[in-house]
Amino acid sequence: MDQTIVETMYQNLLTETKDQIFYITINREDKLNALNILTLTEIKNAVLSIYDDPSVRGVIITGKGSKAFAAGADIAEFANFNVEEGTRMSEEGHAVLRAIDHCPKPIIAAINGFALGGGNELAMSCHIRVCAERARFGQPEVNLGVTPGYAGTQRLAQLIGKGRALEFLMTGDMIDAQTALQLGLVNHVVPADQLMAKCEEIMNKIKTKAPMAIASVIRCVNAYYEKRADGNNIEINEFGNFFGSEDFIEGTKAFLEKRAPNFRGN
Ligand code: COA
User: Fold this and answer.
1) Are 128 and 105 spatial neighbours (Cβ–Cβ below 8 Å)?
2) The CATH number of the domain where 117 resides is what?
3) What is the pTM of this model?
4) Which structural domain, as residue segments, surrounds residue 183?
5) Active site residue 141
């Protein structure tokens, strides 16, 4: 008989283990599962908790509700950060997503709705992405007067190529699920009610393989990209330096006041 273990140790996550799959659900539906720092830290702790747990063979991460996977970093939380806090935020985001990327067990993002900014970066750090037809993707940071800060500039270029990544990052446009599939940003698009089943189908197939071979595949593929690691540090510094700039203050203020920003270039 299947054993389901439901945990209640997190404030902003729901976690459970079933059939050797560890499920993480971001649980801030009223804020479109925006990734505040506590949520990010909890995701890191949850993922690290299964690294050496032999009862878990893989992880599926999703967002609570039908609207959002995660609508980005929490704008209300970081709007008043200074350069130091912005840099720290980016460093921590990088560390969390690295913990996902380097997890020795497969992690699948079940993208149930908006994956924007940090939400898209979270999805990109997972090993495989499956999305619902209604999912929407974007890196809208430029609308806020800032650059992506959770390795979006690095992983997006890796996943979809430099030219497409640059357009995506500079326009801040949102794209639909089919376009994401066409670009290679997601592996599969399915009707919303089949999202979990599709993720489980993939995970159950991987579960039949040798765990050490799976861990090795992840390590080897990651190794190819590690040589570009300097880009991560450049991004952390660039991101931090935006905090306190006039345009960043205007961009975040405009979002919170629900109006269009007026950027002046300083
Ligand atoms: N950070 C903090 N709060 C966020 C958020 C974020 N990234 N994204 C959404 N929210 C909050 C909204 O402020 C709102 O809160 P409120 O009800 O207290 O006012 C709530 O979630 C619902 O969002 P709302 O904007 O009203 O929903 P919508 O359907 O009109 O629009 C989006 C949906 C996704 C288009 C819009 O929320 C959005 O643009 N979000 C920001 C995306 C972004 O820039 N992400 C990158 C951050 S670095």
Assistant:
1) no
2) 3.90.226.10
3) 0.93
4) 4-207
5) yes
